[in-house]
Structures
1.
Amino acid sequence: MNESRWTIAQALMRGRTQIEAAVPDTPLLDAQLLLMHVLGCDRTTLFTWPEHMLTPVQADSYFALVARRIDGHPVAHLTGLREFWSLPLAVNPSTLIPRPDTEVLVAQALEKVERPDATVLELGTGTGAIALALQSEQPNWEITAVDYVEDAVALARQNAQSLGFSQVNILQSDWFSAIPRNHRFHLIVSNPPYLASDDVHLKQGDVRFEPHSALVAEDSGLADLIHIARESRDFLTEGGWLMLEHGAEQGSELREVLQKLGYVQIYTALDYANLERVTCA
Ligand code: GLN
């Protein structure tokens, strides 16, 4: 008989308990995502068929993933997938895993930039999350997304293809290096590295498995934010917007820098935890 001794409900309970002891953040969600991945089903199926028996192969695969989660590996690396702005994005260890906080940046961009034909540049696109989310909402925006890391460029292109947004122009570039000097954008967005190298978060949780180059910047995390702010002035249209994600403690310093650089209409939007997260100018 091709049945293990595990029903869906039992496997979820067991996985959740095991994960909870080691990585207590979201153990039930983690167990559900891993089981959905192994069974190739959606969340509704888990609730609809709690008595459904796993095959021995499914049970083995699932508990092997649970064990890797217990070792600290991010769920997104185990499933190869992370949802952002309702888009299922392929993820791998060469980029940052898209975070819900970054949806604040997408929301600000959609709110402030009203032209249907806007030209947009995303710097440090990683999985392509921000650029693809914007394209999904504004099909006529002309979007360019760049990343310095070759594997990230490949991953972003793969996501653009598989989600049907192959019109997004994805390039390898060290910030603005591959952008022609005469190009002007109505919107420049970035979620650059902004953690300080001694940030305690780097030693905890999922970030340990993410690339340092996507997380850490010099000058207490401000170096890339400031570099982008300075350079962007030469690439924005008159009245164009710059929108930068940053750490909760970096808002006031960044606003000051932007003001000195000649930006106007400077404001900071809050994330879901009411922390300063995205500064626009
Ligand atoms: N928000 C991320 C974190 O705290 C950092 C992302 C970044 O540096 N761009 O893990």
2.
Amino acid sequence: IATFGIQEALKQLGVTEINEGTSTGSKNFSNGEIIESYSPVDGKLIGKVKATTKEDYDKMMQTATVAFKEWKTKPAPLRGEVVRQFGEKLREKKEALGKLVSYEMGKSYQEGLGEVQEMIDICDFAVGLSRQLHGLTMHSERPGHRMYEQYHPLGVVGIISAFNFPVAVWAWNTALAWICGDVCVWKPSEKAPICGIACQNIAAEVFKENGLPEGISNLINGDYKVGEMLTKDTRVPLISATGSTRMGKIVAQEVAARLGKSLLELGGNNAIIVTPDADIKMTVIGAVFGAVGTAGQRCTSTRRLIIHESVYDTVKDAIIKAYGQLKIGNPLDETNHVGPVIDKDAVKMYENALEQVVAEGGNIIVEGGVLSGEGYESGCYVKPAIAEAKPHYKIVQHETFAPVLYLLKYSGDVHNAIAIQNEVAQGLSSAIMTNNLREAEAFLSVQGSDCGIANVNIGTSGAEIGGAFGGEKETGGGRESGSDAWKVYMRRQTNTINYTTELPLAQGIKFDL
Ligand code: UN1
């Protein structure tokens, strides 16, 4: 399948043995500890990254702040042109970057390519948007007055991303922020730092080729302490953070304490409702990809199937059969469906979830387990598992970032299923499988799904970039990517202009001198 191997991919992406984790573009400097990145695919060391110290951070931030002054004055379509070139470079490097994503994170090569495609798509979207970014014009209540609103660049945007989408989530944020006139500081997950190096190299090249200053794209690396430098920094008006709800609660409080803005994209507990009118074949494809794709480590992964009792056994049998056909192994081998989870901690969480669901009374119908032996030396390959459970189980209410699927049964009408679907703390993605118009519309209505994403006859994962992406409740309320998500990266200003020789006050107030 491969036209070149991982070593060639790393070379194409400018990744070396030891990489500077603090970068303002082509200037790299780093004095922190060494972070080693091991591949969950084969357990081998991919490369090392030098983490960011406080001094490194301050130097970087100073450069970013200066860069903002220049970048914000460039016309937005010109900023769009730079993002267009960035998208072109991503097209050139798609195979190499897709491979690295697969190798460092463990998702299938196809999904690695898909992730790079999301980056390319958001660049295209951002280019078009760079000629828009429009506010409204309103009618003033006063004669001879004009009122309108405009959007100005915001400043330095902090991006904290997770290991599971180690490149795309950064791109959603940074491509929009750049066309909005902001400069970005990215802290990738310490579980996928090499992906961060590769992306920063691509971005740096583009800014340099355009004679633009250092500091429009910045990278920092390290653990939560480095993240904290960013979240507590008053020079950073917006923090966009993707990750666990636990992390999000800490970030939200740190940012709020200084009245900064945060855009949070946190955990999901996504369900597919399968009604008596569902197309079973489509249900199986959607549910199985949703549950085992990316080894169950998407925030949109399908965790729960809420199945009507009349079709429960049919759906259950079909899904068990499909699981029987899954091939688990090296994700760079395209004949495999499921790769490894990110690390041994993730394996432990997976094992704990399976133990807990049994302890709470659940019934395992597709056995899990950790694979060992040839090809599984990293110890990170697990068997996708299925348990029959009850909606109220603690473990079912909880997001386990692993390929564990819970089957839940409902009876009566679709509103009973919707109630189960909504009775969790998270509110990211949701889906209904039905050919019944009444059920579909009820699911999408005000009495329906309470999630940020609600799909009909599509699974819970694999959203397109054109829509706003994010969710409610413990998912954090943020919206990234398409639609009007760009607005959060800008500051809105309302302008009222008086072109008369009188000064009438609003609300008809008289103030005669
Ligand atoms: C994530 O898991 O953080 O909708 C993002 C999807 C992808 C993005 C997931 N487009 O599954």
3.
Amino acid sequence: MKLLVLPGDGVGPEVTAQALRVLHWFAEHRGLALEVTERGFGLVNWQRHGTLMPDETWDRIEAAEAILFGAIGSLDQQAVIPSEERRKGSLLRMRKALDLYANIRPIRLLDALLEASPLKPRVAKGADFVILRELTAGMYFGTPRGVETLPDGTRRGVNTHSYTEGEIARAIRFACRLARERRGHVTSVDKANVMEAGALWREVAGRVAREEFPDVTLEHMLADNCAIQIARDPRRFDVIVTDNLFGDLLSDAGGAILGSLGMLPSASVNDRGQALYEPVHGSAPDIAGKGVANPLGAILSAALLLRWTAKRPEDAAMLELAVDRALDGGTRTADIAAPGERVVSTSGMGDAVLHELSLLQREA
Ligand code: NAD
Ligand code: IPM
Ligand code: MN
């Protein structure tokens, strides 16, 4: 497997380093054929090359089979980078150019972390669902977009929430296929009551599920209600499929019920066998450089990579189990620690996962 690693900004390099240690362990002990190339992404490129995206890096991105991405974002510094440069070096360009339309964001609350969840144990215990976020259309990419000056001299900002039938249908199909491997239930989330694109979403979702996936049950839910239900009764969900913007918000809500965004992994895939793996969180400027970031979102993204790109479901399950055991054993980074609990660093969490992997390997 040829892997392109883009650590990026802020805590990106810190958490990516731990995910890479884990992948190298699988290469060394489990026969994973791994060839790693690393390139800068984000501010380091601007500082080193005067551009956010050197052509050579972009060529590698377009040709990559799998990308392991850290995080992007450095608000104050980005203000000085011209907007055209920012677009060239953005995560959105990468998602769009590779057509990574299916963004898989699993949300699984482990018993060991019940204390870290802001929800009561009787509400949260066992919550386990996936958000399938459509990632290449909707409000993020619709046109017209921009800021225009009106005749009276004031300005108007415009973005467009746009979806074609094809864009909706392929997201729904992906979600239904995911549900088949889980509990067979899909919740399609929209604002069909307000938006034309939402009404079309609902119509297409209903048709695709009915005609192509009679074995999957589909329910429709309004997005505002979904936000409530994630906090009130997260166990009712199996697969949530929704548009780009709602998926962004609802997956952060999912992170909140786990107690930390640092726990959430993601995979973004297209239909040509390419995928980008990244933790859901951003560059976390408030904690960057301190060695305290939780690397489990990145490490669990590596597990998704083992499952989706490397096609090694047993290794993926082994890594997820190693993470569960490290947490069961009481290893905590600051974001998921209860008051008074002992806290480890970013690399300390990596050590604990590697230790559990060695034990599992010996047991096997
Ligand atoms: P953020 O995800 O960076 O941080 C939100 C909160 O979660 C912060 O308190 C942070 O300390 C905490 N957090 C995040 N990751 C953590 C981890 N691994 N361990 C422990 N705590 C963690 O979001 P933000 O502060 O809204 O945005 C900061 C920058 O990141 C912005 O420039 C934003 O655009 C960017 N961003 C990038 C991505 C991405 O690269 N995919 C995602 C979200 C935000
Ligand atoms: C995410 C992030 C991105 C998004 C930002 C960094 C563009 O919040 O991956 O969830 O809004 O999609
Ligand atoms: Mn987000």
